[in-house]
Write a structure and sequence with these properties.
2 copies of one chain form a homodimer. With 403 residues, chain A is of the alpha/beta class. The first copy, chain A, has helices at residues 14-29, 44-55, 61-85, 117-124, 150-161, 195-203, 211-220, 273-283, 312-326, 353-363, 387-397, and strands spanning 2-6, 34-38, 90-93, 100-102, 111-114, 128-132, 135-137, 143-145, 166-171, 192-194, 224-228, 236-239, 252-268, 288-293, 300-308, 330-343, 370-374, 377-383. In chain A, 35% of the residues lie in helices and 27% in strands. In chain A, strands 3-6-2-1-9-11-12-10 form an 8-stranded mixed beta sheet, sandwiched between helices. The relative contact order of chain A is 0.11. The mean pLDDT of chain A is 92.
Chain lengths: 403, 403
């Protein structure tokens, strides 16, 4: 059994819905059991949000969910009826009908449970279930949406619940690349990538897969095949362990340009201060990324951290309010920054990777403002206008063009 | 408690949604409990059907219902969030959430039961429930739509279930008129009309209210106020009994131009023949209207009946197939006909009304092809190019311009 997920671009027009349906029909005719998950057509969701804001600049999240969920419940019956017209029995299912039960946090609900009764019934009847992605219902049958990466999450969660052999994510790119092909001309498509590598890449700027879906795939061991909906070529398999010959020290490079930094000078160096500063940001839904704290002198320290530049204004306001309580000398901020990251399980226990990265950037005259690392990732914050140059240099340094 | 229903034109744009919301807010601020029912915005439903047909010329009814039901579940949250923005607590509800349980006949489901639990809960919490009209769910939670007049039906059925004081149907006309104001310049808006009169007018061409909603109103004694969403003027109240001074012999005149006739010559004059001809039409969903059968001679008779001209081709095919079994000389058909009807409870037991109608048409040189009557209606089939002249003449003959 295969779960196939088609994103908004893949179903953006009637012609594309016909093409997607032909692909589903071909899979069915090969004898596979297929469950389909679809996103809203093209820019439907954006248009609905714009319409919402034209009647209420701050629409309540519950009502916004009721509204935007229609995007997917429009696509699903269109695909189902297109399949029927091609002689392939199909049935569309809303999130509710597909048994997708979620938490009640509107606009960012979490899938709690999937009761795939109706999906299994459809499969028994020889029908292709076409499920509206991105949405679910609470216990009270309130409509929820899953937030960014929602349809991917629906697809992988369904694959897990149905114990499907794999989950295919059809998208408008060919797979996962060693770097953004728009930045690095000879970036190479990866045949395999590990869940943890994909998670790190997604976290630091690779837009193809949202981390949520990858996490579920890892947790339930669902192989995820990221591939193009425009041709039949294979894409990238996201799996637990890549074949020996596929391993490399550095697997991929990612950049993220929507970055700004905030520096709090002269903070009291005592327990609870960091919490007092970061808690209000968390409550406001602002993700804080790289955090650097200098070694304190005479009971005070400096704290620098990065946030999305689109969150900068709100973040500065909250930080200024917070330091009134805990005390600090001043708050400064700056935009125009970018994150430049290398990711790869191969770098675990391989000394010298970080050194090569810093040396290559230094030789190219790129100044590193902050550094953050995980076990399989090294991230440098650099000036935004230098990040693409940095990506190209690192791609060459680690010879990622070679397979 | 008032149920207010806003049709597609009334909510066709963001600006109109704001206007509708201001009206709802004003009603709430007068201290009324309001339940709102909305249709799909403007031509949304037509556009969805066109999209469906571009992927499958004959979309399965179940999938088409899944698709078009989104029209109303788009409008409902938009109105709810607009009200919230105006400081009026509101909550949108899909047909499912509003407890609208229907039969399983897709595209023409019947409301079987309404469980208004969530609507009552919203009202208790001081919120305006904004219900998606035109839709419901079966016991299996399959999405259904109610067919023509569906949102009106939802509104009146909700008013009945909630024992509301009245149901206001907001539309793009000012109310029910003695005749189509586009045809008769001095047509008069009726302040009151009886359910049975409205049913007859709707059945013979008055488009403002669909008979289904009026029937439910009559059955449960829900006063229906048909009024304009563009201004505050009162419209027409549809009630069980009109005030004494409002009674008139003839209440209104309606025309219907999509009419054709089929004549079956030389049919055997024995039991079962009419059934053999009309049963297949009924099964195909073709309504047969006026039926005239001549007195038989030598065991044979001629049968003439009217159908919608848009059904003519299909109807002729079915009739030709049917007469192969029962025997008949020939089948002929003609389009270009119209129905011209006068309606009014006042004509019950008032001799001479029919005579005045026929005389007035004859004096104007309008030939009557067929006649059909109910207790409160007389319908003449006339040439289509003469029907508007006929409406004007009858309006004058029965002095309908005078209140």
């Amino acid at each position: 059994m295969i779960v196939q997920k088609y994103g908004g671009t893949s179903v953006g027009t009637a012609a594309r819905i016909r093409r997607v349906s032909r692909r589903i029909a071909a899979t069915v005719r090969r004898g596979e059991q297929v469950v389909v998950v679809v996103s809203a057509m093209g820019h439907t969701t954006d248009r609905m949000i714009a319409l919402a804001q034209s009647v209420n600049p701050e629409p309540p999240a519950r009502e916004l969910d009721m509204l935007v969920a229609n995007g997917e419940t429009i696509t699903a019956p269109l695909v189902a009826m297109c399949l029927e017209g091609m002689g392939v029995a199909a049935i569309s299912l809303s999130g509710l009908q597909a048994g997708v039960r979620t938490s009640a946090q509107h606009s960012r609900a979490r899938i709690q449970d999937i009761n795939p009764g109706r999906i299994l019934e459809a499969l028994r009847e020889g029908k292709v279930p076409v499920v509206a992605g991105f949405q679910g219902v609470t216990e009270r049958l309130e409509i929820t949406t899953l937030g960014r990466g929602g349809s991917d999450t629906t697809a992988v969660a369904l694959a897990a619940a149905l114990k499907a052999d794999s989950c295919e994510i059809y998208t408008d790119v060919d797979g996962i690349f060693t770097a953004d092909p728009k930045v690095v001309r000879n970036a190479r498509k990866l045949t395999y990538i590990r869940y943890d590598e994909m998670l790190e890449l997604a976290a630091v700027g690779a837009r193809v897969m949202h981390p949520r879906a990858v996490e579920i795939g890892e947790l339930y061991g669902v192989p995820i095949h990221v591939r193009s909906s425009f041709h039949d070529g294979v894409g990238t398999m996201i799996v637990a362990q890549v074949p020996m010959e596929e391993r490399q020290r550095v697997r991929g490079i990612a950049q993220e340009t929507n970055v700004a930094k905030i520096t709090v000078l002269g903070v009291a160096d005592r327990p609870g201060v960091a919490a007092a500063i970061f808690e209000p940001l968390g409550k406001a839904g602002i993700s804080v990324d790289v955090i650097v704290q200098n070694i304190g002198r005479s009971g005070h320290t400096d704290l620098t951290f990065s946030v999305a530049e689109s969150d900068l204004k709100a973040a500065v306001k909250l930080v200024k309010a917070a330091i009134k309580d805990v005390g600090a000398r001043s708050v400064s901020s700056a935009g125009g920054i970018a994150k430049l990251s290398i990711v790869g399980t191969g770098m675990l226990g391989t000394p010298g990777i970080a050194g090569r990265m810093f040396r290559a950037l230094a030789d190219a005259g790129i100044n590193i403002e902050m550094i953050s690392t995980s076990e399989i990732r090294i991230t440098c914050l650099v000036a935004r206008d230098q990040v693409e140059k940095g990506v190209r240099i690192l791609h060459k340094t680690f010879e990622l063009e070679k397979s």
